[in-house]
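Note to self: the last two entries modelled the partners one at a time, which told us nothing about the interface. This time every component goes in together.
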Amino acid sequence: MEKKYNKKEKIRVAFAGNPNVGKSTLFNALTGAHQHIGNWPGKTVELAFGKITYKNIEFELVDLPGTYSLSGFTDEEIVARDFIVKEKPDVVVVVTSATTLSRNMYLVIQVLELTNNVVVAVNMIDEARNAGLKIDFRGLSKALNIPFVPISALYKEGIDDLLNAILSVAQGKFKAYQIKYDPELERLLSELELIIDGKIEEYPPRWVAIRLLERDRYIVDFLTLKVPEAITKAREIHDKIHEIFKKDPPLLIINERYKIVDELIEKYVSKKTLTNALTEKIDTIVLHPIFQFVTTAITFIVLFWVVFFIGDFFVEYIDLLFSLLTESAESYLVGLNINPIIISFIVSDSGLIGATATLVSFIPYILLFYFAFTILENSGLMARLAFSMDKILRYFGFSGKSFFPITLSLGCNVVGIQSIRIIEDKKIKAILYIMNSFVPCSARIGVMAILIGVFIPDPLTSSIAIFLILINSFFIIFIESKILSHYLKVEASSFVIELPPYRFPPLKSVFNISWIRTKMFLYRAGVLIFIGTLLIWTGINIPPGAPLEESLLGRIGILLQPIAMPLGLDWRAVLALILGFLAKENTLAVLQALYGGLESLPLYFDLPKAIAFIIFYTYYVPCLATVATIKKESNSWLITTFAVALSIITAYLVAFLVYVLLSVMI
Amino acid sequence: MPRRRHGHRTPLPPPPMPDVIPLSLIPSNSLVEIKYVNLPPGLFMRMSELGIMPGNRVKVILNQFGYVVVEVMGTRFGLNPRVSSNIFVKRIIK
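The predicted structure of the combined assembly is written out below.
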């Protein structure tokens, strides 16, 4: 029966599709900047949500994660599948690429097992045209009774047709034919369906029967509680399938799906596969046994330069702006005879303006990072770099993609943590969140270099000392990640990665995605950074007007002094480290303030104490912004707390060892 | 009849087949037919869904010490040695 929509109603549309088919480009073309990102409950997988109005009807659009199937092997697949099943969108648009339709159709068949309300958007129709590929869209539509709509998300071609098709499906004008497999398999499936039907509401019975034969663990657990007799029946049917088809049931079902795909492609698509000459030419260099490492190094240097060099340029102006703002605000407030405590709360480095400045100063780095990273990802280059780097990183227990989080952290830990989202394996992600603390960022390296220069004036010796401390941090990463991998039972990684054709992604779309993600960062991590900064202000200013050593934080420093004494450090060094948590550069400022200048430090620190302090500073917890980002990205207080605790404990042990060794030797 | 252990089927070892070798040993620019895949169940299913399964033909684009790039159904995938050494194939010589 046709459903009529009026302007008060909404049509909910979910966009599914394989990675690299232009799904996000299409989503951006439809929603522009009017979208927001949210997490699926209990998962770190993100979904993009947007709204548009077409023919006076409101469409709620959801961009599901890119997946090859809905089999539930990864969090992305589980989220995509669960969204379709539980949220029951009015229409599911499966975005495919005209250039790889035979591969993408597998997901279409799986989606049709879950819902009848499907539209297939065949993207990149411009590329197909240029390659002389002919697709009979009407024939495909007739075969499955669902719309197949040719589009080009890049050139915004066919978008109206797509929206009209979505409307038609939502109005009930199309209802997909049920996918039918081998008659004998269908007979066995209906036996299973009969047992399940009427006993569950959550999922379509036929889909559950198929998943049960595919040994989907989640469905097996679900039915063991709800319909245990289905499990017994499934075992019988597994044996029958082995007898009749001489195949394992999951493999049989995959074959059946591909049989349908092959029949459709054979009949309605003129060429099965296309060659991409440009991709092949570029790959001769990018995947060359030697040049691949050169390409990786150059790409990384450019990425580093874009994020940190250009970022620094903007941050300088942001710092200048906030300095002027602070000065003006201070003069104005003093002129009004406002209480000095309130003035301090507003204008000090850890007050309101300081906290805002800290947050705003991250925007250039984060925005540039997402911009550059999105281009790298969508162009197809990142996949090839990860493939190349896997050859080296596997010796350290990491996969190729881990290259980005580790090396980007050398510039800024916050940016490095953000890039961990490209890792699929949850356990490796957790290890990287934890290990990130040991990669010294540029701020830490800068402060470390200055302090070493104070205690070891000879340039060669101080350079060697800096080098050894840096190398040691990677040694710590290697050892501790091996231990964590063993404890978390991380299997030797099997690395399978798609190498898509090279494409330059549309800049508007890239900018939209970057800006939306930057806003997300500011909203989620920003709140923690802001609160943390104000807490530190409170610690310094209670009681009001007291000198630093009598403030709350000062007293904490004195309280912690006994713990720091085995490293030869006093409460002033402890306070410098505590305030370094807010921003790494603070440590220098506090040392200067409490010891009467950097040049006076050698009077209070002998060499073993100095090196112990520097080592502790280099390896202990990264800044507040990084910790907030770990929490935001991992969505886990456990991982965040563990990362902080491990870094402090490791820093303490290494610093203590070095202090004892140097004290004995010198 | 395959053995049962705790309700799960234990895959039988592959029968000895002439000219069947690991994918990791196939030279670049070769066409192969997949004969047997010896990977953990989850990864095996994932590879099958990508089209890398017994009976299918794939093109080996390049092989660098077991790091193999294959083309299957118009899409290229990079596989590390842990995967490529557990996919057994027969080279098709035209």
